[in-house]
Write a structure and sequence with these properties.
about 350 residues, 15 helices
Amino acid sequence: RISLFSSSHRPPKLVFYLVLWMLFRVMFGAGLIKIRGDASWLDLTALYYHFETQPIPHFLSRFFHFLPQFILKFFVVFNHFVELVVPFFYFSPRYFRLYAGGFTILFQVTLILSGNLSWLNWLTIVLCIPCFDDAFLLRFSSQRLKSKLASCLAFSPENLGFSIRNIILTLLGVLIGILSVNPVLNLFRSQQLMNASFDRFHIVNTYGAFGHVGKVRKEVVILGTSDSVITPETEWLEYEFKAKPGSINRVPWFFSPYHYRLDWQIWFVSLSDYRYHPWFIYMIYKLLKQDETLLSALSNTPFKESPPTFIKVDLYRYSFSNRGFFSSPFWERSYVRSYLPALSLTTPQLKAFIKDYEKFTH
């Protein structure tokens, strides 16, 4: 006897189409937000900057950054093709659908090779699976797996007469159709929302990525001292993170799909004033208290025995060093300005902020 949702019969086609519908929104939404959000995507110069200014580069990002400009422009054209044209072929006949899935996977692989974008590209590749039917996938399967699948593929859900199952699938399709109305309308709005949900359960969302490309990379550099009084001779020691750029000699490594969330969020901090990121001030407070949980998320703390007395944050401009692929330093950096003045646990403004912040968050 086969149960209502048994693994012994093929998944319903509706589920495959719903997965492809999600893939369509991910890709097409990303394509639209680019051509609306930044002129560099239209004049094909976006990749002159993207590899250097993306959230978390890795060691290959510098190689991509210094490719000839005509190649970088070609990659932008390829980006537009895959995100704005290819998605319409996810629902086409088999031959075109196979190529659409192949182009999308190829595109995601190039993104994985060019930067640490965490799990985004890997999950998008998973969404491509329904583009390929059993006959195609079995070409790349071992003989043992083929024999195991043979019995499953022999079942036909049309002959099983699952009326309850069909009712559930119909209701699911209607629900997704209704919830898709606002996300579709959003795709065609001039003020398109990049990542948003239009229902309280976040069932059908709208997506997008890199609607704006930064032209200059700025990084916040956190420094501490154990001096009791700050003087011009005070020695400031730098905290190092596991992923975000810090020391100009440290080569950033490849670690996606793992996601260093703290490093990723600090990238946003460097893009605007600290007043827009109260959590970052609270993090400085935790560093002053030598919080063990926070320190475990860092690559290195210069204060092993006792906590620092003061911490300040400076803003630096970072750029790739053009000295050959295996050369050092990996980065070049120059001081921009003070981002956050020196703070201690006795600073009145910090004490007042922490009191309000903890009251609000707890």
